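Posting this for the archive.
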Amino acid sequence: MDLIDLKGKRVLVGITGSIAAYKACELVRLFVKSGARTYVVMSKAATKFLSPLTFEALTRNRVLTQESEDWSSECNHIDYAQKSDAFVIAPATANTINKLAKGIADSLLLQCALAFDKSLVIAPAANSKMLENHYTTGSLKMLAVNDSEIVSPTTKLLACGDEGNGALAEPQDIYYATVKTILKDPFWSDRRVVVTGGGTREAIDSVRFIGNHSSGKMANALATALYLKGADVCLITTKKSSDIPKDIYTIEVEDAKEMLEYTIDAIRVAKKGKMSKASMNSSESMHLIQKKPYLFMAAAVADYTPKYPQDGKLKKAMLGDEWQLELTQTQDILKNINKDGLVTIGFKAEKDPSTALENAKRALQEKDLDAICLNILGETNNFGSDYNKVTCLTKNSNYELPLKPKIDLSFDILHTVKELDRDE
């Protein structure tokens, strides 16, 4: 998974009395590895499952408990809460959830929650019957209405022996939900964005295909960065990854024809306006409110596809010593989509530095793009690499974005292209 640079940020992790508390160790480790100053507050029941010393060793910070609260230092529920950029409670028991919804603060952890004035992240973990009880479901709805982020539990065999929906979500999913509360950007928030990625596979027969070396990693990183900024992301890819946030709506495709069809459909959906009551005019009518959608075309779409793909496997004995394969040109997606009301960013990979820039400028003009990200492939940023560098070209400017992990580069790209929509 991609770890996000959280240097300069403070994260508070609340741990309650659940057997799933052991998973909080991995969650805390993710925040520490991301560079965040990480603090922990534990309920009295949580200390029966894990020692505070475990988290002090992981974070190098004092764990806040009933016994350790100290008003001569910042180790108290006011400082820990108010100085944090994010507060995640994982695991959150049914008891904690119901008390949170009613504003009860009879423990240090709950007092931290009342003192925290940003969006809480709550990851429930409890027996299915306790979570499905109407009191608990009502409390979760109340918390969600009050801007808490609920990370849904998973279905599996629970510690109590029952099988059901009550197991703590994976640390990766809780991590991404928490980071999203820190990085959410009003510009990208609720904006519909389509991202395409991976190299298309053009079938020769049922077992062979024409393809390329694109790994889809740049598109996955872009989709992740956009999700963490608050965008409504649709990722269309040939290389689905389990490491991206699970809430990203992902469509898996195979060939150029499928990529074109699903991209056109996703753009059509993205352009649909939302009916919303804004400032009412004299006729008290409703009007459309919709941020202009974006398309990041990072997929490596094959230029040609076999003219006559075959069912089954073509036998070598039938083909002979030489095989002439007839190809037909695929449709250029960026030339065939309706760009009205859409900000379009293309991606171009080149091997020859002497012609790369001119080729990118030509594509920018011929395909009527708002921007194009030029990637000149090299040893450090070849296909499949976790690092990349691009030159982002617009009609008026060129921006050099240096070699970085693809997730960090994605945030740089978003910062560069966010001002392309001049209508807002």
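The domain at 10-183 is CATH 3.40.50.1950 (Rossmann fold). The first helix runs from residue 23 to 33.
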